[in-house]
Design brief:
alpha/beta
């Protein structure tokens, strides 16, 4: 389609056992509805879809991703609860791709070169890139005439300078094994930064931000003049902040120490990614809502877990503030950042010396998931809460590249 009018972008987030999708009318940026195909490859699967007009849920057998995509098309065009009348109304497809390595610093129209790069980077994202390339290939079969766009989680952070992304390891480990900081959540950080510029009525060229994506996975990014200059996640999403079940930063010597005491590689990987973080510290749960409830009832481990969590966030904010000439905005996003006023309150409780002065009344009065400024009128740094929307950012990139 050459015209930018009446474009309909299908956004695909293809995982190893699930397929999320959302349909956008562009350039209005209007979501027509979204859905999820779950438990791909298992005995019993399911598909759900909802829009302003209808909601559908049903159990289905989903042997592979091709069948999952066929189910998506059936749901999108269903006479009773569909979002469009025919698949020909879809004008382009945008894919979330986790890892682009050092190959891509922006979203790109997918061709053979892009597909090969995604495959080459499978070793850097073995759990995600294979599913991402499968989603792309299935869509090529079902929509042979449509252009598709890859939106990489790592792309936004490719503007980091070497002193920010290099580790203190022998250089040959970077040269031969590509070990460096890549960063993740890039699409989310980019989206909320662009929203922040609009809310603050500022231009990216003279604005510096620290964006905090706080959810079950969490990361913080320093954004200078619209570009990422550092981020807390590293070679994998394990580095950085304490998260729901991930450890975040630890002393590397802990690994050989526990190896000597009977842990193998699989045990360690499971420990650091699935049994640590807020779950491990509290011994209760990885869900911040449940932890806050337990803390309010005096549970010592829940209280400590929340204190450790917010302390680590403040440390990163302080570090990034020291690196930038000035900070104009501090942004909270993600499931916790958008919805938990108490966590925002605790994070900001010792940031006044950096000019980040929270208005606690504004903070607690802001509805869950709402966009707004929550700093005092006299705060040198504007503190904002901005709901993220990675799917919309993918749709925007796809529309701009294709139409």
């Amino acid at each position: 389609m050459d015209s930018a009018s009446d474009a309909v972008v299908l956004v695909i987030n293809c995982g190893s056992s699930s397929l999320k999708y959302e349909l956008y009318k562009m350039p209005e940026r209007q979501s027509l509805g979204k859905g999820l195909v779950a438990k791909i490859g298992l005995e019993k699967g399911a598909i759900s879809q909802k829009s302003d007009k209808a909601k559908m849920e049903k159990d289905v057998v989903v042997p592979d991703h091709r069948r999952a995509m066929e189910l998506v098309l059936e749901a999108l065009t269903d006479k009773e609860y569909g979002l469009i009348k025919d698949k020909s109304e879809i004008t382009s497809i945008g894919h979330r791709v986790v890892h682009g390595g050092e190959d891509y610093s922006r979203s790109v129209v997918i061709d053979e070169t892009v597909e090969n790069a995604i495959k080459v980077n499978i070793e850097l994202a073995p759990l995600h890139n294979p599913a991402n390339i499968t989603g792309i290939q299935v869509c090529k079969e079902l929509f042979p005439d449509l252009k598709q766009v890859a939106v990489f989680d790592t792309a936004f952070h490719q503007t980091m300078p070497p002193y920010a992304y290099m580790y203190g390891l022998p250089r040959e480990m970077y040269d031969k094994m590509r070990i460096r900081r890549y960063g993740f959540h890039g699409t989310s950080h980019r989206y909320v930064a662009n929203r922040a510029y609009k809310v603050m009525l500022r231009d990216p060229v003279n604005t510096n931000l620290i964006t905090c994506h706080l959810g079950n996975g969490a990361s913080i990014t320093a954004i200078e003049k619209g570009k990422s200059i550092d981020t807390s996640m590293g070679f994998t999403p394990l580095e950085g902040l304490i998260m729901g079940t991930r450890s975040g930063d630890i002393d590397p010597s802990i690994i050989p120490y526990i190896c000597e005491r009977g842990y193998d590689i699989k045990d360690i990987n499971d420990l650091l990614n699935k049994k640590s973080g807020m779950l491990g510290l509290s011994g209760l749960t990885s869900d911040m809502r449940d932890l806050c409830s337990a803390a309010s009832q005096g549970n010592k481990h829940a209280i400590e877990a929340i204190q450790i969590y917010t302390y680590r966030i403040r440390k990163y904010i302080g570090a990034y503030s020291a690196e930038m000439f000035k900070v104009d905005g501090l942004v909270f996003t993600g499931g916790i950042g958008e919805n938990d006023a108490d966590t925002r309150d605790q994070v900001c409780s010792r940031l006044e010396n950096l000019g980040m002065i929270l208005d606690r009344d504004k903070n607690h009065a802001l509805p869950r998931g709402a966009e707004g400024i929550i700093s005092t009128d006299y705060s040198p740094v504007t503190i904002l809460c901005i709901p993220t929307n990675e799917e919309l950012q993918i749709a925007i990139d796809t529309f701009e590249l294709v139409h």
